[in-house]
Amino acid sequence: MNEEVDTDNENVNSVLAQESSELFHILSSQSAAVIMQLCQMMPSDARQNINPLASSAAAGKEHIEAMLEYFKVADTADCHNFLQTMCMLCENIPMRLEARLMSVAGCSDTDAIQTPATKPVCLRNTEACENSSPSETNEKSLSPPSEQKCFKRRRIDHWVQYIDAVMNLLGRRWKRLSEHLVIEIQLENVWVSLRVANRGRDRPDQTPGSADRGSRTPEPDGDYGSMESRVTLETFLQGCAGKMTVLVGQSGSGKTLLVSHLGQQWARGLGPIPSSYLFVLLEFRQLNLLSRPLSLSELLFRHYLPPNGGEYEKRAVVDYLLSNPEQSCWVLDGYDEFHSKLGRQEVRGELLDPENPLPVADLISGLLNRQLLPGCTVVVTCRVRDVIDLEGVSDKVGQLLGWDCHAIRDYVHNFFGVKANRALGVYAAELLLSSQHLLAMSSLPALCNICCICLEHLLLEGRDAGSTQTLGEGGRGEEGGRGRSRAQRGDPGGRRRGSEDIMIDVTNCRAQLPPTQPHIPSTLTQVYLTLLGAFLSRDPDKSGRTDVPQTTRSPHSALCELTTLRQSELCELTQVAWKGLEGSKILFMEEDISPDVLEFSIRTGLLSKVEHRREDGALVNSYSFIHLTVQEFLAALRIMTSKDVSDTQLKNRFSLKTRWTTKSDQRTVFTDSLHLYVCGLASPHCTPALVQLARTSGGTGQSWVQKRQALVLKLLKKLCHSNTLTGPKILELCHCVQESQDHQLAKQVVGTRPTLELRNIRLLPNDIDALAFVVNSVGDNGIGLDFGACSMELECLDVLPRCQYIHNLCFRSRKYGDKFAEKLSSVLPKLTTLRKLEFCGASLTATGAASLASALQNCPDITEINLSDNNLKDEGIKHIADVFPKLPRLVSVVLGRNNSSLEALDYLIGKMSSCFNIQHVYADGTKDVTVTFFQNSDLKGHKTKSEPTISLLNQKWSEPEMQKLTEALARCPALSDLDLSGGQWDVETLRTLTQVLPKIEVTKKIIVNDSCSSVEGLVILTALLCDCPAVTELHIRLQSPVQVSVVFPGGREKPANEISKTLCLRCCGLLPADLEKVWRSLGTSSDLTLLDISSNSLGNKGLRKVLEVLPCLSSIQEINASNNGISMEGVVMLARALCSHDSLTQIHISDEGREQVILKFCPDKSEDKQQLKMFRINNSRLLPSCITTLCRTLVKCCYDFELDLSHSSLIDEAVENLLKALPKMTSLLRLNVSYSSTSTTGALMLVSCLTASQRVTSVELRSQTESFIHFDHVKSEQASCRLNHFSLNGDNLDQLLEILQQGPQLSDLDLSSNQLSDAGVKVVVDSLPTLKITSYVNLSNNSLTQQGLLDVASVLNTCDNISGIEVGLGEEERCLIWFTQDGGCEKSLSVRESSLERDHLVRLAEIVSACPRPTKLEFKNNLLKSDWIEDFVILLNRIQRGFSVSIEESWIRSEEALQLVCRCLDLSSNIHAIRVHNTTIHMSLMPATELTSVSLVDCAVEGYQLASMMSIIQKCPLLTELHFSHNSLGKEGAEFLCSVLPSLPNLTSLSLGSKDGCVTVFEKISEAVQQATAIQCLSLSGYVISDIAAQIMTRMLPRLRSLSLSHCVWLAAGALQVVKALRECVSLEGLCMDSLQLNEESRVCLAQALRNVNSICSLKLNRIATETGTSNNVLELLAAMEGLTRLEEIELEGWRMADRGIEQMTRLLPVWTKLRRISLSKNRISDQSGDKLLEALNSCSCLEELHLASNSLGNLTAARMVLVLPSLTHITVLDISENCIGDEGSVSLSKAIMCMKNLTRIHLTSVGTSKLCAVAASLTHCPLIQDVGLGWNNCGDKVAVTLSRVMPLCQKLTSIDLESNAVSVVGAEALVRALQSCPALKLIRLWRNHVSSSDAQMLSLRDRRLNFSST
Question: What is the DSSP letter of 1002?
Fold first, then answer.
């Protein structure tokens, strides 16, 4: 083609004959019009037999063949014309052929085409010609045909010449590029993986949907590297003509080299691109330099290749190109380096004008979108992430595959020279293949070259400089920054150097291997450090070599030495790299780099020269780094060594890349490896080299470098803790951590990720190696790896065993098939820690299953296997099942969705007979198949192993298949459960199962849901209860969802009399006639215990049949006939049955029988008289006639029964009929009308039963809440009446009182919440003298005012048996009147929160004055003023009997309290004692008595305020008690005491507990006290006592009878003085010295004092502390108490006396016979010691209080309490909180409590058990109980409900503590209901229970005595 055709030497006819075969094929594809026009050129006689319009294709070909045969022999002129016309008219003539034909045809002006039909040819655009009209065509075709022919020939000649020039250009280009190639390029050896053209992500999962799974083995998905989807590059490019083809590859994969080679092949007439095409090779990096708009011709001629000649030649080439665009091939290389982003037209736009200048991006976009040169061939190369920009325009996409190990080995051998250095090449190849990082890099040709350079440097390192030559330099040449499969290793002289420089052993002709193992880089960063060292060592000026042999050095140390030689050049080079990175620049002009650095960089090979054309078309030199990664690495060095790069810039650049690409991703020319190098350089090993370079970069030192490294590690650490990273970023993080070589960071990566999930990404062996570095840091904790739809080479599995601690391994994708499984099988035994293997959603068949099964046998620790969603079929499942016995720790195997049949299930069931550790076989159709196994601990442990279970769901069993199944099941070991649901069987299949059921050993139940659909099948199943003795329960439901279960006794044999059988036939649509079939199937003597026939259609008729068969059901316990349409007629039948059947005990009916109908029986007739029967009819509308009929039937009942009519509608007439029948129902013990009676009239009718029946014991009626009437067997002595929440007006109230007056004696009358108001309350209290009431009347919540309060208070004078009145008008209105049967008792009046006025106080004073007996008055928070109180005191002063007054107001504090005290003492001469405590003033009045006691306790009084009392106290010489405790007396208070004490000769008791810490104050007080010689009882607690004050005290101690010095602070000397003085206090009866600090000497003195003072009755030494703190000290003090025979009270809390101390205590207790109170809390008393202590307490018969909290008491002590506490009849207080008495101990304790009749307070906080129901119930035996503490025990509702039953029986109960338990709303509701019967109860603490805040608020509103707060 390249040779010119010599037209003079060729004959036109011979040329036609030579090319006729090809012309025949061309003409066969032309239109009929063209053939007809050509035929017209033949003479008429020659074309007689030719019909060019023939419809037959065969005939048309014959005519063409005839035409060609004619012109072969025609004269030369005719043949010339024919060829010229054919070239003008025909399309798709190859350029080679067209050029030859036009040349040989000539261009004679005399030649003419003898046809009028000749069409003109458009020279600009073929499509324009096709679209033009005939007129337009004729206008354009003005020149004669001969001129057109000559013009076309000239145009073709210029086109051919231009192609020749391009061929020469590409040839030269290839020669330059291939000069230093290590291996030759052959397209047939380059492999490409086919990709889907429109793929939007790098690697999406192509796993089929659920509908496709398990049906077939999927076809290969065509992803990376699979053998089926890869083709050679030559094959891939075949057929690319006229298409847009994309060749994808990573940076360094050789894309630029391959397209250059493709151009060279084209130039030689070889390869897939026809040589007739114009081959245009453009590089995007060159296009980046074009800034101004260009036309297509300018792009072609100015920036690719200008043609020879001028504008005419250019015009000719362009015209031909535009006319024949399909004859051009445009290769656009490196789209990833293009700065612009190409636009894509969603809809094909209009064609662009090629002559119109456009931006270069628009020109390229026009080519891709077929808007320019439509039909041309386009080949674009780019990286994987950029292919997304080409979606929709690409016709074909292929990805270059990396080199495998064989290709890498071949390259290494060639690099080092096969002939001369074969051994060295082999050694280098082994080194490379042994390094995962080098191997991963070497899959890319350009990086393989870099790895070889590194190896060469490492192998030569340490050699003698004189015998080993310097390494040759390397470069990239034209390719610049993009990787390529070659090694440029030439020196400046052009001589090839490199591996030849290795020493040669001439004798043996082999390479002399290094004497030491070279240091192979372990990270990517180390590889590039080595590479940098290799290039730096090439500098012949400063190579850094010495004559001294060196041992192998690390890359860090080697680089450190080299950088010291070329610091400045390297520093500037890193700056160039960083600036290029910042500006996305990879080509650098000469002006960008200083000359010295440029020369240095080229000399060492770090930079390579690249030619490019400027916009004016001139060729200039530019430079690029040998690879993009080298530029990025040098930029990373800049980051880590220069202050020019700020921390912010580093953070912005530091991000993890993802392997998922989207259209929104920011494009970059670089490889995104910067962060990896930065992480690697953050390693401490790199610090010295970085410091060397940093000192040159910016003067920074080691501290700055380390700070920058710390910042990188900090950023990494933050990423390690992130929980939002996707799989690709987690993998990238693993690479970063591996680069840093920081094991702590590796631990943090897996610390919060028990499983590393990787999805839809391609994995390489180095990825697995990075995972291994991270995974191996987890240690024995183990980790999981989950690979979902990840493409990976089989070599990845070879690396997998490096992950030492994999517990879970999962593969999910159709990519993984049998070959993958086979490779995995070779790896699995090496994963010694593997516990779980998942190979699901894959393409595994029986072959792969066999491989896995053989490997799993060598994995004894495997516990879970998941092979679901594959294509194993039956054979594959059998392979897996065969290894079950060989895997002892197996827990579960999942085998679902594997295209298996019932045969596989039969095989699995058969395995149960040989593999005894199978626990459960589960199958749901073929969708889910799972086998679970027993644990070894279950098999070898002491506990009994449960039986296996089988679940075969949704299996379509036929009758023969069921027979086969039952035979297989019969051979199985005993099964716990058998589930065969979902079968939808016919009756015969069901009968087959029931017939063989006795042969199948099942211990619990068989489930066959959805298997029985008719009553016939139901009857067949019902017979099982009779025919199969092992069956205990049968549950059948025929309505949807159909449910059938057969229950067995659970493997436990029971006596015949204890066997219970249940038949449940719910929702089966049974009719009365069907019951007869059921009875026949059950047999005549059924042992049925429970029959459920609810939700059928039985009606009253069916109910009668049930009642008729009752005599045959001798063992029946319950019958449920609910929802069977039963009417009131059936209800009466049931009532009759209750009266007539002995065993029928309860009937529950709702909605008049239409809904619930339940019959309960008690077959044991020996107790039928003792059990209370019940007839309950709820939620029904009971008409008067119904009530009459029902009661008339129940009157005949001779058994005690309860009638429950709750939640029903009872109108007044119905209540009246009920009331008439009540006296006749002599067996009725309880009537429940809760939520039934709504009218007040009806309620009064029910109250009248108090007069109608003398058996009534209580009437409790509450509107729309619980209401009961209780009866006794005989006449009741007294009754209780509670009528609440009704509206009692005048008439109703009079009627009620009349009924009560006629009725029996009442224990209590509760009329609270009845809207009585003042008038109604007055009517009630006025009638109290006529009512017989023994306990109390409750009139609370009746809207009382102060007038009503006065009316209630007035009954103190009118009723002698009233003992007290409580009235409160606050938020919780309270009005209680208490009665007593003891005459002459004290009366009390309590008024709280009632907002009293002065007049009210006057009236109350009058009422109290008229009261005949002593009265106690209590006023609390009534908003009383001081002057009102003073007037009240004046009125009280007139009363001539003794009484007490207590007034509490918030303002009674401090000075106001003192003023009030003074005024009261001035105004009343009858005040015997006055006391202010906190905010309450207490006065005791007695006529004709003197003031004897004044107390101001904890009321914020200060010393200076006491002066106002001086005159009053001095006027009271008979004063005996003075108490100023817990105030701040200060200096003024001390002076006050000094003034008044001398004037009080009768003062015997002084209490001055202080809040002061002043030493001098106490010294003054002690001096004053010393002068008051009459004082016998002294309390000086809380003072700071100096030695001087102690000395003073020692002088007055001997005369004291009681001394309290608790919580005092003093020095050791002072304490010793006081303790010594105690030895002289022979009359001392009470001693309190809590929290006393004793040294050894004072402890001895205290022991001596205790021995000397035998008169002590009360001893309190709580929490005393000694210096040594030994048990001997405690024992000595206890021994000193032996003589205290008069002891009544002892407190020794916090002594920690333990067992030895208790042993000593047990010897003392028999001596203390008068002991009333003992407190030994916090003494480490064990359970055994507690037992002994209780036994010793048996001698303390007077004991009243026992405190043993916070010890270690248990069941033994509780058991002893049962024996001891009943004999201690005076016990009132028991505190054993914070012990661990346990469940057994609580039972013992409850028995003890039953005997403690005087118990008032019991504290059982945190006693180690929640089972305190028995304890709570025992409180009913404690009538005086007031305070109960059960907090912090986790008690539930049962305890609360038990307390609710106890509360009404304990009328003195005031508080219950249930905080921090597990009481829910249910328990709290029970407590609220019980509170209605407990008016004295003031508080129930329920903080920290299981009650929500909303429920707590609701309950508190119902009764404020429930406290849910912490205070």
Answer: E
Contact 371, 342 (CB under 8 A): no
**What spatial distance separates the first Cα and last Cα of the chain, rounded to whole Å?**
107
Q: Of 1421, 1366, 1427, which is closest to residue 1396 (Cα–Cα)? A: 1421
Tokens of 181: 């190639």
Give the E-state strand segments of 869-925 in sequence order.
892-894, 918-924
Share of the chain above pLDDT 90, in %: 37
Mention every residue, 6+ apart, whose C-beta is less than 8 A from residue 1127. Answer: 1100, 1152, 1153, 1154
Max distance between CA atoms of the chain, in angstroms, equals: 172
Asked if the model's pLDDT at residue 152 lies above 60, the reply is: no
Asked if the model's pLDDT at residue 467 lies above 70, the reply is no
Rounded Cα gap, residues 434 and 521, in angstroms: 11
Q: CA geometry: angle at 777 spanning 776 and 783, to 5°?
A: 65
Cα 1390 from Cα 1400, distance rounded (Å): 14
Instruction: Decide: 1341 and 1373 in contact? Cβ < 8 Å.
Output: yes
Torsion of CA 216, 222, 223, 228, to 10 degrees: 90
Residue 1899 has pLDDT above 60, yes or no: yes
**Token code pair at residue 1476:** 């202010």
pLDDT one-digit tens code per residue, 1670-1689: 667 888 899 999 999 999 99
Q: Which residues pair with 1829 in a beta bridge?
A: 1803, 1857
Secondary structure in 3-state letters for 1375-1414: EEEEECCCCCCCEEEEEECCCCCHHHHHHHHHHHHHCCCC
> Between these two residues, 124 and 698, which has the higher pLDDT value?
698
Residues 1553/1582, Cβ–Cβ less than 8 Å: yes
Q: Are 524 and 437 in contact (CB under 8 A)?
A: yes
pLDDT of 53 above 80:
no
User: Taking 70 as the threshold, does the pLDDT of residue 950 lie above it?
Assistant: yes
C-alpha angle with apex 742: 736 to 744, nearest 5 degrees? 115
User: Helices 95-105 and 145-177 meet at what angle, rounded to 10?
Assistant: 130
Exposure letters 516-551 (e unless 16+ CB within 10 A, then b):
eebbbbbbbbbbbbbbbbbbbbbbeeebbbeeeeee
Q: Which residues contact 1421 (CB under 8 A, 6 or more apart)?
A: 1370, 1392, 1393, 1448, 1449, 1450
Output the six-digit token pair for 842. 């894959």
Torsion of the alpha carbons at 455, 461, 466 and 469, rounded to the nearest 10: 20
**How much is the pLDDT for 873?**
92
CA 1275 to chain centre: 66
DSSP assignment of 1695-1732 equals ---HHHHHHHHHHHGGG-TT--EEE--SS---HHHHHH
| Model confidence pLDDT, tens digit, residues 1009-1058 | 988 888 888 888 888 888 888 888 999 999 888 899 999 887 555 555 56
pLDDT digits (tens, 9 = 90+) for 1713-1771: 999 999 999 999 999 999 999 999 999 999 999 999 999 999 999 999 999 999 999 99
For residue 942, what pLDDT band results from cuts at 50, 70 and 90?
Answer: very low
Handedness of CA 158, 164, 168, 169 (dihedral sign): positive
| 3-state DSSP assignment of residue 1484 | strand
Residue 1117 to residues 489, 1030, 1090, 1095, 1519, Cα–Cα distance (Å): 101, 20, 6, 19, 79
Token pair belonging to 1591? 């000395």
**pTM of structure:** 0.58
Residue 477's pLDDT is 32
Q: Lowest mean pLDDT: which of 224-228, 267-271, 831-835, 1368-1372?
A: 224-228
Closest by CA position to 83, among listed 62, 109, 63, 111: 111
